[in-house]
């Protein structure tokens, strides 16, 4: 009996994803391929790993015993890939970069455009979204993240702190200045704040009659630009937007920072190191803006 890692990988992805359809999406194959690979693994092991009932499935006792061993194999494969990649010192090949959509659009794309011009043999894969991708399993090689501290097993560079201010449309600013002591401007707040009036608004907007709760920064940014209310936003994003102005003084520094991360095993990989250094250098030019000290030049 000779085990095929790819068959085990398909089985493991099914367990992680929770359904054949989701596993197929992650593996970028059709559902039939996932089912066929798992059936081949069961045939190879001469045992059933999954009980199937229509679209429903659950692990057999043998399947449950296989999961932790498959996870160990996955860790070993990822380690081999990282160590082999770390020996590559030529500035060519693929580098995967991940961060949020707004950070890509406002800050990273100009940096990456120049990097592509300087290093035409390096291919870039840009992974934008709110989902935190795993550097350990090489879902991404470099991540730009906004957090209090970096995860373990990463090469981490703190580019700057992150400051917040209150923003809204120019029209809302005029309304506030005309009646600052008794303003009833609406408030935009994140749904998880769960307070009648957020702390940042209590002093200047204690009489606010309307509060709009949102769960996405991009939507909050657009709502603020439309004049739907006053929002507390990162200076690094809002000061960059010509349709937003600061409403009242509430500059708030936090212990969060802008971090550029890559896995520790890739510290000697030339292409990853080159791009990481370019991103750090490019972002640090905007440190004062990120920390709320300056408006956009």
Largest sheet: 9 strands, mixed
Q: How large is the radius of gyration?
A: 24 Å
Task: Give the class from helix and strand content and strand pairing.
Answer: alpha/beta
Return the average pLDDT rounded to an integer.
Answer: 83
Instruction: Give the distance, in angstroms, between the N- and C-terminal Cα atoms.
Output: 66 Å
Order of helices and strands: HHHEEHEHEEEHEEHEHEEHH
Domain HTH lysR-type: 3-60
Pfam family, one: LysR_substrate
GO biological process, one term: DNA-templated transcription
GO molecular function, one term: sequence-specific DNA binding
Task: Give a short summary of the structure.
GO terms for molecular function: DNA-binding transcription factor activity; sequence-specific DNA binding. With about 300 residues, this protein is an alpha/beta fold.
Describe the model.
- With 297 residues, this protein is α/β, with parallel strands linked by helices.
- It folds into two domains: 82 residues, Arc Repressor Mutant, subunit A (Orthogonal Bundle); 206 residues, D-Maltodextrin-Binding Protein, domain 2.
- Helices cover 41% and strands 24% of the residues.
- The protein contains ten helices and eleven strands.
- The strands form two sheets. Strands 3, 4, 5, 6, 7, 8, 9, 10 and 11 form a nine-stranded mixed β-sheet that branches.
- The longest helix has 26 residues.
- The model has no long low-confidence stretch (mean pLDDT 83).
